[in-house]
Amino acid sequence: MTQPLARTRRARAAVVLAVAALGLAACSSGDGGSAQPAATTALAARPSSPAKVIIETPRNGQTVRQARPEVRLELTGAKIVNQTTTRIQGNEGHIHLLVDGKLVTMNYGLRQRLPQLPPGQHVVQVEFVAADHAPFEPRVLSQAAFQVAP
After folding, report:
1. Distance CA 99, CA 43 (A)
2. Could you count the other beta carbons within 10 Å of the beta carbon of residue 39?
3. Which of 51, 53, 32 has its CA nearest to residue 100?
4. Are 47 and 136 within 8 A, CB to CB?
5. What whole-number distance in Å separates Cα of residue 111 and Cα of residue 56?
6. Of 126, 102, 121, 103, residue with least CA distance to 64
7. Angle at 25 between CA 23 and CA 105, to 5 degrees
8. Percent of the chain with pLDDT over 90
9. CB crowding 57-76: b at 16 or more within 10 Å, else e
């Protein structure tokens, strides 16, 4: 491989890693799950998405009897892709799933079993993000507060 080509590939890889790190930082900022966009230093404007994500279960206000409840989602206007790329499209991405403000998984499906949760109130937040792990603008979010029964 020639030196200029190798440098170009390393530069692209560095950009992908930097954008992914920004996306993960925005999703796991510990802000209690607020839907406010994180400040970013990205050079390019973020694309919008026609997607809508809805949490089917657990519903807002629901009491669940399992310590590891299953989250089931509905996604419209977009599809989930499992490859990471900087060539992002508004109708392709994946799901970042947070519980109580902490990122627990980057999901490539619409069902996910949550980690073990203690009894009490919890908030699950899901965000449809671009294939580079960074959020769309505006963000595509949904959240639900639910109780885990003792």
Report:
1. 30
2. 7
3. 32
4. yes
5. 10
6. 121
7. 75
8. 64
9. ebeeeeebeeeebebebebe
Q: Element (H or E) spanning 146, and its range?
A: strand 135-148
pLDDT for the residue 84: 85
Between the CA of residue 35 and those of 38, 42, 59, what are the distances in Å? Answer: 9, 19, 18
Class level of CATH domain 3-31+47-148: mainly beta
Cα 72 versus chain centre, distance: 14
Per-chain mean pLDDT for the chain? 80
The model's pTM is 0.69
**Is the N-terminal amide bond of 138 cis, ω within 30° of 0?**
yes
Q: What are 86-145's pLDDT values in tens digits?
A: 889 999 999 999 999 999 999 899 999 999 999 999 999 999 999 999 999 999 999 999
- Position of tokens 């603008």? 137
The full set of domain ranges for the chain reads 3-31+47-148
Please choose, from the candidates 77, 101, 100, the residue with its C-alpha nearest in 3D space to the C-alpha of residue 89: 77
Where is average pLDDT lowest: 34-43, 65-74, 78-87, 98-107? 34-43
Instruction: Tell me, rounded to whole angstroms, the distance of Cα 132 from its chain centroid.
Output: 11
